[in-house]
Amino acid sequence: MTIQDIVNVLHAKVLCGEEKLSLPAKTACCSDLMSDVLAFVNEKTVLITGLTNPHVMRTADMLDLKCIVFARGKVPTDDMLEQAEEQGLIVMTTKVTAFTACGMLYEAGLRGVPIDWPKEGEA
Asked: Which of 46, 86, 89, 85 is nearest to 69 (CA)?
């Protein structure tokens, strides 16, 4: 799946990074808790969130994310979009909820970030 495929599936509006829509997307993560994203994401991926604050941009930068999808029609501030441009991020918004976006993308073949859970008996 490419980022363009995500745009098509979600009927999303691209806010920045249009020139990178041909990049592949293999996994996605959905969260409004950036601490969870930091704890569980360990690869370049697509982040689906309804949170529009600077923490999202910092998290994306720290993890070298490819793309952020803002759900529920949320639109980041101009400052956030400028930062996204500097970071080389693709940013889009979709009118569907995060839950629905995840379902639509899963149905289209995109999978979640694999998580290495501790084995039973490990802390």
From this structure: 46
Q: What is the CATH number of domain 3-112?
A: 3.40.1390.20
Whole-number Å distance between alpha carbons of 96 and 77: 19
Classify 33 as helix, strand or coil. Answer: coil
- Per-residue pLDDT of 46-68, as tens digits, reads 999 999 999 999 999 999 999 99
Domain ranges, ordered by start, for the chain: 3-112
Which residues, other chains included, contact 35 with Cβ-Cβ below 8 Å and sequence gap of 6+?
none
Report pTM.
0.91
Which run of H or of E encompasses 103? helix 98-107
